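Possible race condition, two jobs.
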Amino acid sequence: MNGGKPTKIRFEYGDDEEEAIAATGSCSNLDNEDSSMSEPVADDDKTSADYYFDSYSHFGNLQEMLKDVVRTKTYQNVIYRNTFLFKDKIVLDVGAGTGILSLFCAKAGAKHVYAVECSQMADMAKEIVEANGYSNVITVLKGKIEELDLPVPQVDIIISEWMGYFLLYENMLNTVLYARDKWLVNNGIVLPDNASLYLTAIEDAEYKEDKIEFWNNVYGFDMSCIRKQSIMEPLVDTVDQNQIVTNCQLLKTMDISKMTSGDASFTAPFKLVAERDDYIHALVAYFDVAFTVCHKLTGFSTGPRSRNTHWKQTVLYLEEVLTVREGEFITGSMTVAQNKKNPRDVDITLKYSLNGQRCAVSRTQHYKMR
């Protein structure tokens, strides 16, 4: 599904999830997941490919994700308020990290959970599982999902927090799709099962001047060659909703239960209509995630009009400043593809045109998320 208006979904991250699991009979201290941690063993033989996984061994990164209330509470509520999905089921947690999602599933009554984690955090996840009394329900497996053999031929549910910046950066989605095709039973469940990418346009003169145009004159010297490179790097940052100048355009919706890995590379058209007279300095991408198999449609948004998440938004600065009048529109297309050398990186090609009263421009720009 490409184009169209954003879909209204139920965003839940309240504090009343405990009543939804009162009948499970399980209890543990899930807030103490960082206790009894031992120092990871250093490995001097790592390849460059390993550093992606090592980044998820850093406690700061993990704490940031766990403290992201929108992210973590949504998963917790999805699991605790839909125990009928998990009761006596076999669950595969892809990219388990500390094992927090696995603990949620175990507490909700899952028969068994296989938590797969490639980084050094897998060792600590085992300690966390043991410290919380779930060693008989959760099995932590260390390694890449593509290189492991599960102790069971099939699983009933695959759960994962696979989303990266710009939704697709880090390309963990393909790992989830691999696991789905190899182990998920017919009519099994993938959580989340729906993700949508959106685009809008913003006024951002002050930041662009500070970060991009700075290179044109550095203490009297021309360093514009760096400017050319810096503008190709999408900025991950929080955008003030008051900066938004246009409508929000749905670029791409992905059905995780049915899509193929190739569907993550795409070209999508867009039309952004100005809602006021203003300048446009950048286009902004964000995503929504939905769990459609729940009793009530549940999900969250990473958009600038929603509560902040650690994903923030992705800002793509334009070479030229666009001057728009209310009702004028920018048309174009965005092409998203895996980088050929490193499939965890994302290449973005943006084609856009404006034929307005005060500004006429047609341009193609290339961006690289590294």
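Job #2 (started ~2 s after job #1):
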Amino acid sequence: MRVMRACLRRRLEVEGTGIWGSARTGWADSPVKIENYSEVTEFILLGIPHTEGMETVLFVIFLLIYIFTLVGNFLILVAIISSSRLHTPMYFFLGLLSTFDIFFPSVSSPKLLVSLSGNSRAISYRGCASQLFFHHFLGCTEGILYSVMSYDRFVAICHPLRYPVIMNPRLCVILATCTTLIGCIHATILTSLTFQLPYCGPNEVHYYLCDIPVVLPLACADSSLAQRVGFTNVGLLALTLFFTILVSYTRIGIAILKIRSAEGRSKAFSTCSAHLAAIMCAYGPIIIIYFQSTPNPLLGAVVQILNNIVSPMLNSLIYSLRNKEVKRALKRVLCGAGLTAEA
């Protein structure tokens, strides 16, 4: 009954009718029947705003990016697993990042490609909830993983002699487990707050994936609490993680400046530059999306695409092209598969 009342209230508001119908006759004289309205069973993803007529071009671009992302991160993962020289904490976390970079774009890219190809834009209620959950679970987990990787670089450069003792296999497993657990809790809170509200129409999502800012306005009840908690949760977590990274790299920068030899400074900087580039690609979009004073649908979509689809591809490029050990391991993998000739 609570859901039906909320659905009726929402429909009356949409149709320009007072919430309670006529002030004198109340519910009885309302032209809307309660039994005609039920909960939404599916949502319609309208896609990227202001891109009508560009579906074919966008389909080709996103398909190529998605394929390159999957292949690139898979090769990095295979290279790390197959090379015993890369069985260190730094490459353990890089392997985890490549794994998440395979799954993160897979949350939204397949459905986006289906829509751009002219097929159904509909997504089920459970599918929408699952998409929102895994989007925030994987996004949050990657954000925490960047902080863990920055701590690993801090220990390696600032405490090189104690590095094997501090970053022992047990601590690496604990950090990886806690990273995944925190990401799961974060996503569970946001998904529960979003989908505990009733949805009874309209069901058109003006975006290419189900995310909190575009789903909550469709709720048939007051969503202010969910909006505040979602904004605070995402914002504080992003700022906290970014602050920990900033502290780590400030300490790393001071340590590098103290290195006397130019070769030593160059080597220390090269081990961090790829990670810094990946962090900028990841945190830049988050800050723009959730902290813009006046939301711009097109800007939000472009920035979200950079974060969800392009950034995982760039990570594979950044870490493979900037890291000599990864390049050597990749070359051995490709040679073993007969795809390249031995040098």
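The first strand starts at residue 42 and ends at 45.
Logs attached separately.
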